[in-house]
Design brief:
alpha/beta; Rossmann fold; seven-stranded mixed beta sheet; two-stranded antiparallel ribbon; 10 helices; transferase; SAM-dependent_MTases_sf
Length: 374
């Protein structure tokens, strides 16, 4: 079976289930990774005096996009104050897939410029395109690449996945499924490094934050939230509904065959896998690699050592909205869902989440890596 290229597009606009309104977890991840970003900027070789050229890869839309840029400008400003030197101008490229909601970003840029006041001269452009497919920028033109929560998305679902009976890697997945995911990540990440190496200056830095695994064994560190999403889709197979066209009750809001052919273009690598690919590709040195966890409900940091969620019902609703903002377009494009079925799917998802959180809270394991161009 050929790998499927799904519509990897976050929910647009500013509605309740939009990515802009439901990406507070991603904002916390950006903030938690900030110390590594700060250290990387300080170590840029031949620090730019006139114009600082940078790109945010997989920028998506909403407030997080310009939040990242604001952090970078503040870091550079502190650095310039310490060195008693003039602030450079900033040329910023915001990259994502062509169908990304760039309009929402562009509408927020004037207010971003007003908030900057006289702190920095900043020039922002959008660059649509896949960072796996081709060069996006001129040769040796950028000083910094930043990407948060994008590298764990593959260019496509792996090829030759059969008899998985899951939407991702699970405890019941056959070994060939794991091997296919590993090979796809190796191929994509190697290509990503090769392309970026041509665009970045010698001594430039790249800071990447993405979901990963805490242990080498994929079976022992499977993604429980995706298991729950898979179970929610299985619920739709067994759901009895009334069909107005035939005036009778039918089994299944989705077909088993449709679910069997759905494999997420997503992979959470172990740190040794990441470092090995960097070493084999050969264009970058690993400067820093760190790890941190974020709860599924990033707001639930009360009694963080407690395994049980503070408010399972409230958290499940919050997590379901966040997951819907990320996965809805992908699910709709594959299953051809209508709005009512999407609503019901994520109601089931929230129910299963509540049951899980009443027993144990969940978290995402994250890797942040700083790379130096040789």
């Amino acid at each position: 079976m050929a790998g499927e290229k799904l519509l990897m597009l976050m929910n647009a606009g500013n509605g309740e289930c939009s990515y802009a309104s439901s990406s507070t977890l991603q904002r916390k991840v950006i903030q938690d990774a900030k110390p590594v970003l700060e250290d990387a900027i300080k170590k840029i070789g031949d620090f730019p005096k006139s114009c600082f050229n940078m790109a945010d890869l997989g920028c998506s839309s909403g407030p997080n996009t310009l939040f990242t840029l604001s952090n970078i400008i503040k870091i550079v400003q502190v650095l310039c104050d310490e060195k008693s030197c003039k602030m450079p101008e900033f040329q910023v490229y915001l990259n994502d897939l062509p169908d990304n909601d760039f309009n929402t970003i562009f509408k927020s840029i004037p207010s971003f410029y007003r908030d900057l006041k006289d702190e920095a001269n900043c020039f922002i452009s959008g660059v649509p395109g896949s960072f796996y497919e081709r060069r996006l920028f001129p040769s040796k033109s950028l000083h910094l690449f930043h990407s948060s929560y994008s590298i764990h998305w593959l260019s496509q679902a792996p090829e030759k996945i059969e008899n998985n009976n899951n939407i991702y890697i699970a405890r019941t997945s056959p070994p060939h499924v794991i091997e296919a995911y590993m090979k796809q990540f190796d191929k994509d990440f190697s290509r990503f490094l090769q392309l970026r190496s041509e665009e970045i200056v010698t001594g430039g830095r790249m800071v990447l934050t993405f979901m990963g695994r805490s242990i080498p064994d994929p079976y022992g560190s499977h993604c429980a939230s995706l298991d729950i999403l898979s179970n929610s889709l299985i619920d739709l197979i067994h759901e009895v509904h009334f069909d107005l066209l035939t005036s009778c009750f039918l089994n299944g809001l989705i077909e088993q065959a449709k679910l069997d052919s759905f494999n997420l273009p997503f992979y959470t690598p172990y740190k040794d896998e990441v470092e090995k690919i960097v070493q084999m590709e050969g264009s970058f040195d690993v400067d820093t690699i760190k790890f941190f966890k974020v709860n599924w409900d990033e707001r639930d940091n009360i009694n963080d050592d407690d395994d049980i969620c503070f408010d399972a019902y409230s958290s499940s609703k919050h997590i379901a909205r966040s997951m819907r903002a990320v996965f809805e377009q992908m699910l709709v494009s594959h299953f051809q869902f209508g709005d009512s079925i999407v609503d019901y799917l994520f109601e089931r998802f929230a129910y299963h989440l509540t049951c899980h959180l009443l027993v144990q809270k969940g978290n995402f394991f994250n890797i942040v890596i700083s790379l130096r161009k040789k």
